[in-house]
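Let us practice reading a record.
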Amino acid sequence: MSTPWPDLGVLELLVAVAEHGSLSAAVRAAGMAQPNASRSISRLERHPGVTLLHRSTRGSTLTDSGVRVEVHVYNTHDVLDSLREGGCDVGFIEGPRPPRGVNHLTVAHDEMVLVAPRDHPGRGAAPR
């Protein structure tokens, strides 16, 4: 059984960490509990086996993989904002759960495959 695609809220948390420079600053801004937020980020990184944040005593910054996730989150927000503001009639976004406040229709269930270099640490992981 595979781990489900993370909901938009967890992806937004990753972006907030990058914007605020640390997990503690991001959770303060969001009014979340830090242990829950930390677990969410760890789960997000564990499933594909990639590091999304460079962590140091001075804060956190996105890795290249984290930047790709950030772009996905911003693109999703652009589509939703345009839809809600009347800039478009329909839009396409990815994810298993539609965001609140919009009507939705699932038009396809596509299978995506994670690809990585041959020397990636997760290369020996068994298929799920």
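A brief commentary: The beta strands are 53-56, 59-62.
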